[in-house]
Amino acid sequence: MLPVQLRYQFRVYPAPGQRIELARAFGCARVVFNDGLKLRQQAREAGLPYVSDAELSKRIITQAVATSSLPQAARESEP
Fold first, then answer.
1. Is 11 exposed, middle or buried (0-12, 13-18, 19+ CB in 10 A)?
2. Whole-prediction pTM
3. How many Å apart are CA 23 and CA 50, to the nearest integer?
């Protein structure tokens, strides 16, 4: 028996505000992907073991929090 493969094709026509938010989200995803790729390439060049997905997530999230304004925003929201 052959497996059934379904495929859907559709187009999205976002409103101008949605277009901006989508561009921002995809831009962030691209930056995260590139950062992860860079970390894995550096580890490979240095002869280190393969960086797991969990370790990669931990490093990238830590880096993002350290470079963002999230900690500042949290401090400003305190009474």
1. exposed
2. 0.64
3. 31
